[in-house]
Amino acid sequence: MREIDTHFPAEACPFCGIAAAYPHPSSPPPSLWKKQDEKEMSLEDIVPDGDVQPERTQPGSFVVLAGRGVVAFLDILPMVGGHLLVATRNHRVKVSDMTSDEAQEMGFYLPLLSRVVSKVTNVSDWNIVQNNGARAAQVVPHVHFHIIPRPATKPEIKSRSWTMFGRGQRDELDEEEGARVAGEMRRCLREEIKRAKGVSKL
C-alpha cells in the first residue's frame, strides 16, 4: 500500500463522497464510448439544478458534472472565484491508476469545462494543474485536475503562489456564491455540450 493511501483511505475520501452523493442516472456500459450514444451520455451527465443539494456531502459541495467516470465541482478552498475541480468518479490515486475509459472521458470534458470556467468567470487565461503523490503536493489522494482562472487584475493575489502546489493561501468558498457560480456553470456546460454534439435541444 502506498504511503499516501495509508493516511487517507478511500472510505474517508471527500471526492468519493461527492461521487456517491451524485450517482450517474445510467449504469456504465462495458465500453464507455462504443456502447451508448455520446449525445445522450453527455447531456445526462449534468446534474439537474433541482437535484443539487450542497448539504448532501460534508463539507458541502457545489457540483457541476456527475458523469459515468468523471465528476466536477467547485473547490471549497478556491485560489480565485470559479476554481473548479475535475475528478475521477472511482477512487484512483494517481493519473497512472486511471483506466483508458476514464482517461477518455476526462479528455472529453477538460476542454469543455475549461471553456465553461472561462465564460462564467469572464477570464480568458487559466491554469490546469494536476498533482501525483504527496511529494508533488497532492493533498487529496484522488485523481483531480484544477481548472483555475487567471484574472488580469486582482492585486490581492499578487503575493500568492501561482505554482498551485498544496493548499497555499486560499479563502473558503462562500456558499451563496458557490451555488450561483455552479448553477451558471451547469447552464453554460449544457450549451457547450449541445454545441459540441450538435444537439438542438435537451
TrEMBL record:
Gene Ontology molecular function, alphabetical: catalytic activity
Positions occupied by motif Histidine triad motif: 142-146
Active-site residues per Swiss-Prot or TrEMBL entry: 144 (tele-amp-histidine intermediate)
Single GO BP term: nucleotide metabolic process
HIT domain sequence ranges: 50-157
Highest taxon listed in the record's lineage: Eukaryota
Pfam families per record: HIT
Identification of the protein by name: HIT-like protein
UniProt source species: Bimuria novae-zelandiae CBS 107.79
